[in-house]
Amino acid sequence: MNWITNYVRPTINSLFSRREVPENLWKKCSECGTMLFHRELAENLNVCTSCGHHMAITPRARFEALFDNGAFAEVKVPEPIADPLNFRDQKKYTERLKAAQRSTAEKEAMLVAEGEIGKTPIVAAAQDFTFMGGSMGMYVGNAIIAAAERAVELKRPLVLFSAAGGARMQEGILSLMQMPRTTVAVEMLREAGLPYIVVLTHPTTGGVTASYAMLGDVQIAEPNALICFAGPRVIEQTIREKLPEGFQRAEYLLDHGMLDRVTPRTEMRDELIQILRMLLGLEPALKGDLPAPAPVENEVDGKAAKSGA
Known about the structure:
The protein has helices at about 5-15, 40-45, 60-65, 95-105, 140-155, 170-175, 180-190, 230-240, 250-255, 265-280; strands spanning about 25-30, 35, 70-75, 110-115, 120-125, 160-165, 195-205, 220, 260, 295-300, 305-309. The chain is α/β, with parallel strands linked by helices and about 300 residues long. The protein has 2 domains: about 25-55, no CATH class; about 55-285, 2-enoyl-CoA Hydratase, Chain A, domain 1. Helix 5 packs parallel to helix 7 (about 180-190). The radius of gyration is 25 Å and the shape is globular.
């Protein structure tokens, strides 16, 4: 046995060989091209630290940043029939569902949870665009109804984060039926006198925009989110005219009265706490969850003077 070949050379190669860097340590911003370290990006809620571009974020990660100490309890959603129409295009619908479940590690396109933000109890629902484009099928309809019923039961406001490409074509008319169903769910909140706040994220389109996503008591959007029924390309092809710059983006809709606020994701939690407590008639929340400093009397030149602790 040649010890130089079998031992010395492999040892030297292992010491000086180039180490492979995992590909998932860095992510490139699609807007400005900046390479972002994954931990820094996650701490900034998937918002580019260079240009402020809002990248996609999963409902679970959003809730961990939204709720106090990241603690929340999932609300059970009734499961519909998996493939009511036995739909098949290039693949079976059931195969597409299983692939989406594997890639996202989630059951469906919407997550419903309950917890507290700024010590204000709420029910929240969020769509996952990475799950078949966040499309609205029977499960999403059931999720919104479950969220509304839970909010009414607990007498809590409902906050919904929308992100969808529209109705789910694999469920045909059954997906379109979720538009009136979710509208009725929102009406349940109105009758109970409970606030319903919608946060529209990129993109929110199609039947989702034509139903529950535009029925909030307060409509907030993330910067530069595409919010529309028919997309700008379809409209341009139909009317054969060039659309205005930024057409159907959040800032454009804010200027034209369709939104109440456009708020960056990193400021969304504080914004929601303030609005919710205002709508519920509660005292404003204190930063850092600390009590207000009590005045302390100090003797200055024989006179009592009050100063903050």
